[in-house]
Amino acid sequence: MSIQVRGASWWAGGSRIVNRVSLEVPVGGMLGLIGPNGSGKSSLLRLIAGLRAPSEGAVLLDGRNITGLSRRDLARRVAFVEQEVSTEVDLTVTDVVALGRTPHRSAWGGSRDGDGPAIDHALRCAGLVDLRHRRWHSLSGGERQRTQIARALAQEPSELLLDEPTNHLDVAHQLELLDLVSRLPLTSVVALHDLNLAAMFCDAVLVLSGGEVVADGSPGDVLTEDLVRRVYDVDCAVAHEPDSARPHIKFLPPRRRATGTPHATAGYADRA
Ligand SMILES: Nc1ncnc2c1ncn2[C@@H]1O[C@H](COP(=O)(O)OP(=O)(O)OP(=O)(O)O)[C@@H](O)[C@H]1O
Predict the structure, then answer these.
(1) What pTM value is reported for the model?
(2) Is residue 211 domain-shared with residue 272, that is, in the same domain?
(3) Quick check: CB of 17 below 6 Å from ligand 1?
(4) Which domain holds residue 236?
(5) How far apart are CA 236 and CA 226, in angstroms?
(6) CA 165/CA 148 separation, integer angstroms
């Protein structure tokens, strides 16, 4: 197994945010982490990235507890793109992507032969070649997101962790990015809100609710109407294409309570 989490919990502010989570991702596999807001996806990703230590349990890479890896060794193999990344310094796109090479540089910071090709490859993969000289502060939200993904790819990791990588991207870039991640020869864990994107691209999905794993397995087995209702309190119809095991989820409008207001927000129809 490339990534294993064994009974990991993490406490913060007197609450157990991640509750005895176990998971396994085989080499080359792509795991989708899904669950409502505040269910613990980002916290779990930070444990896997080694940015936080579990209060109990363990995270293993290739069977080795990450507490036994040096920061540098961990940074060489695990790339993590968090949800909101900003920089105070006004770097160019290429400068930001080049930061991905830092763990591969020698102690005195000299660049290595592989840096240039790795940076070029990452820029091409993220569709940023034409933007390579642009300054970070001039980029749109989606362009910044793609720059951070390129930085992670330039790191040439064996494990890639992405926290909602599609949230600023238009539909074409969402599809391109997840297609790219699913085809790259690396192991990935990707937190996603879009259940249909998770169903389309992930080999397996793991559903968190209140910090606990409530389901895991193939998208076809896990993403059922019952699961979506239990976890999100949303009605849906799940269709299966005849030539694909991957489900497609059609969400239904919020049910109305006895008062006439839907679950989440007042409907536009009420205001019309
Ligand atoms: N350092 C912290 N101290 C206290 N509570 C925290 C801390 N970090 C996270 N939490 C809480 O833990 C819960 C899980 O947060 P987390 O960001 O992991 O969820 P998430 O599933 O990624 O959410 P979202 O989908 O909204 O991004 C939230 O209720 C959050 O407020």
Answers:
(1) 0.90
(2) no
(3) yes
(4) 224-272
(5) 9
(6) 9
- Same domain? For 134 and 249 the reply is no
pLDDT tens across 138-197, in order? Answer: 998 889 989 999 999 999 999 999 999 998 889 998 998 999 899 889 999 999 999 999
Q: Based on the domain organization, do 116 and 232 belong to the same domain?
A: no
Please count the other Cβ atoms lying within 10 Å of the Cβ belonging to residue 55.
Answer: 14
Q: Are residues 88 and 54 in the same domain?
A: yes
Distance CA(119)–CA(135), nearest Å, equals 16
* Residue 84: band (very low, low, confident or very high) from pLDDT cuts 50, 70, 90: confident
Q: In the structure encoding, which two tokens stand for residue 94, read together?
A: 């290429």
CATH code of the domain containing 85: 3.40.50.300
Q: Whose CA is nearest to atom 27 of ligand 1?
A: 37
**Mean pLDDT over residues 62-84, rounded?**
92
The DSSP code for 236 is E
Task: Specify the ligand 1 atom closest to the Cα of 191.
Answer: 22
Shared-domain flag, residues 33 and 156: yes
Q: How far apart are CA 74 and CA 88, in angstroms?
A: 25
**How many angstroms does the Cα of residue 156 sit away from the middle of ligand 1?**
29
Of all residues in the chain, what percent carry a pLDDT higher than 90?
74
The tally of domains found in the chain comes to: 2
Confidence bin at 59 (pLDDT 50/70/90): very high
